[in-house]
Amino acid sequence: MVAVLIVVGIVSGCTGIRVSPSAVETLQAPAASSATRYDISWTMHQNLPVTEDAEMVRYVEDKFNANLVFWNLENNKYEALLDMKLAQGSIPDLFRIRQPQDLLKYQQQGVLAEIPEEMLNKYAPNIMKAIRENTPGYQEYGQIDGKYYGIPVINPTNIYRIPIVYRKDWLDKLGLPVPQTLSDFEKVIYAFTNEDPDGNGLKDTYGLSSEGMNVVFGAFGQIVFADQLYFGVKDEKLVIGALQPEMKEALQYLSKWYRDGVIDPEFITGENKGGYKHLSHSFINGTIGMTSMGNYYHWIKGGDYLTWNSNGMEAPVEAKFNVKELTSINPHAQIIFGQPFSGPEGKRGSKAYDMLMSFAAIGAGAADKPGKMETILQILDYVSANPDLDEAASMKYGIQGTHWQWASDSKEDVILLPPYDKTFSYQNTIGTGLGMTVPLMPTERREKWAATLGLDQDGIYNALEVATPSLIKYGTELIKQKNKAYISIITGDKPPEYLDEFVKEFMAAGGARVLQEANDWYSQHPVK
């Protein structure tokens, strides 16, 4: 990934309000029909709903002579809520496709508009420039049969894999180092279970749960538990990780650990018990001592780096998300990051999020009104990849002087002003966050800190980032079949040797066709 200059380049935000006049000049082309005021329905990433009087929304509406109508779809249930609206005959004009594999599905359903390439280049020039210059291998990922139906949303910070986190205070009490090998890890999780690491006199702790299992699979070179089928590469061909013979050995370890009571017996329901989806409640509540859940910024400890406070002074960053919740329950709890531990053949890795994060598309109905698609693209470009630093920051943080201010004349760091510096997802409520992430690496202090953690090494990515027709047809059931088989083996209902039988059943249930189409696609796309 190419690191570039501007801190706000990765803007996934929207709308500015009282911002610099020069921003008007950044628009590359006027709306096709400025006299026409369009009603534009809009979907976006949301932790909280956009309020009816959101000031940033009003600014964008006035600038582009449009009425934005937001579909406040809860992020944790986004696909289910979106599909329900589609089934009722409603199609959003700005169509966020959160799962990349769903682009083909929605195109086949006829709910997406074709976006002419010349229109993309004319009305979304900054977005297309960022993709073309920084991630050229992804330029065609939004195409189906040579026609654009989606704009690829590529997250440059996904060069950092999912971290591996341990309870440092538990390790210290038991006199154990951070594990480097699978054998080391086994010693640690047995100690976490049997040697009372929390000191309460009860046998109520475990070594790991569901998210930690992927690090075990990673020690054998694959990823298994995910909301998609994970593909790897062997002998220059794609393979499905869960079907590989080396997974049998990984399952032997896990089934033994489960039998010995080292794995949280509630692993089947996952580590998150509701609310913000990246929180590991099993770890926060002291049930387990190791996890690999959430992203690097969900595990920021107090003092990890210096940041700017609301008074314009440098101060130690406060604990965030999982660490904040953990220490609110147990102020003495400590965490430490570990590298993926190596398996018998020296393999290691933890799950990494795909660089292709999602797609931004346009609903089929928007193409029926002349000028409407152009206006949507123009708004999307303005709120996502604005080259004006003041405007771009306003699209992400809100009103300059009210919600935020620059830390210095260099315009590299932003200071959030009270009370917004303490307000969860205030950007949603005021109407920022409307746009898409573009592949410009941010230079904020948080990302500089992340770069020191070694998270750009040993990430295991899904080698198939798009959907194929058979994956749409069979994928959901194949994932259920895979999860059922693996859980049955881990819990002892089936022996590890059952994996061979499962592979045959999987391939007969559509897996063979899925694998063939995946390799047909892979043969036509160079490695990025």
Structure description:
The protein is an alpha+beta fold. The chain is globular and about 70 Å long. The N and C termini lie close together (10 Å). The chain has a 3-stranded antiparallel beta sheet, with no helix packed on it. The protein has a 3-stranded antiparallel beta sheet with strand order 10-7-13. The chain folds into 2 domains: 236 residues, Periplasmic binding protein-like II (D-Maltodextrin-Binding Protein, domain 2, 3-Layer(aba) Sandwich); 188 residues, Periplasmic binding protein-like II (D-Maltodextrin-Binding Protein, domain 2, 3-Layer(aba) Sandwich), CATH 3.40.190.10. The N terminus is likely disordered. The longest helix has 25 residues. It contains 17 helices and 18 strands. Helix content is 34%, strand content 12%.
Which key phrases capture this entry?
528 residues, alpha+beta, D-Maltodextrin-Binding Protein, domain 2, 2 domains, 3-stranded antiparallel β-sheet, 18 strands, disordered N terminus
In short:
The protein has 528 residues and is an alpha+beta fold.
Give the overall shape.
globular
Number of strands: 18
Q: What's the helix count?
A: 17
Count of folded domains: 2
CATH H level, superfamily name of the largest domain: Periplasmic binding protein-like II
**Major β-sheet annotation:** 3 strands, antiparallel
> Quick check: average pLDDT?
92
Query: Tell me, what is the CATH class of the largest domain?
Result: Alpha Beta
Query: Gyration radius, to the nearest Å?
Result: 24 Å
> What class would the helix/strand composition place it in?
alpha+beta
**How much of the sequence is in beta strands?**
5-15%
Low-confidence stretches: 1-33
